[in-house]
Amino acid sequence: xxxxxxxxxxxxxxxxxxxxxxxxxxxxxxxxxxxxxxxxxxxxxxxxxxxxxxxxxxxxxxxxxxxxxxxxxxxxxxxxxxxxxxxxxxxxxxxxxxxxxxxxxxxxxxxxxxxxxxxxxxxxxxxxxxxxxxxxxxxxxxxxxxxxxxxxxxxxxxxxxxxxxxxxxxxxxxxxxxxxxxxxxxxxxxxxxxxxxxxxxxxxxxxxxxxxxxxxxxxxxxxxxxxxxxxxxxxxxxxxxxxxxxxxxxxxxxxxxxxxxxxxxxxxxxxxxxxxx
Length: 277
What we know:
The protein is α/β, with parallel strands linked by helices.
């Protein structure tokens, strides 16, 4: 439900700087998994400054997305399994801290974007291909190191899919179903990506580095995240259309954000389980 008393959203500036425009936004440019714990600590500190009553009584909605820099610049420093494990351990360390220090919190953990889909689309584009491919050598050099003699980024895409699979497995076992004041929901909408490169400049989904999102791309990402929040766990959309603009509205029958707990449905035989598609 719409809450006119919502607090904490930023109105401009960089999240790593504490000022009047950032409020509870502690996101940092080019952050990696190893930055998640320090950001979690900063978030809790700022949340406490809202007052003890708000800190203990009010529900908090936190969104975490991290991984682009990890797979683009750090993954080739380790074996595939070691890189994913480091990344996931950093994320769960931050989640453990939040669970024990931030009461009444719902965490949106956004699945790692399939950067390989983005790179494949841009490299194969007749207008963008050469420019974007050159930029990727700098902003995503691990992809080039892994696919030195390939044009389809197969090895890099397999690495991303491994990161995604391990994150899904970890979070599905990390949540404590007995807790009623803290939960993490993996929002999978960026597991695969579809983007339209034949669009007006102001609607183009990518930034000038061909990797990060433009303002238009971030608007579509916000819509897709919102829509994922109101889809049952196990039935969530897992493809991100970068031109997405249609918001799903909660209904009277289903007015709440779906978590693992309230996604459970009755099936014949009186067994409760999450229905997957």
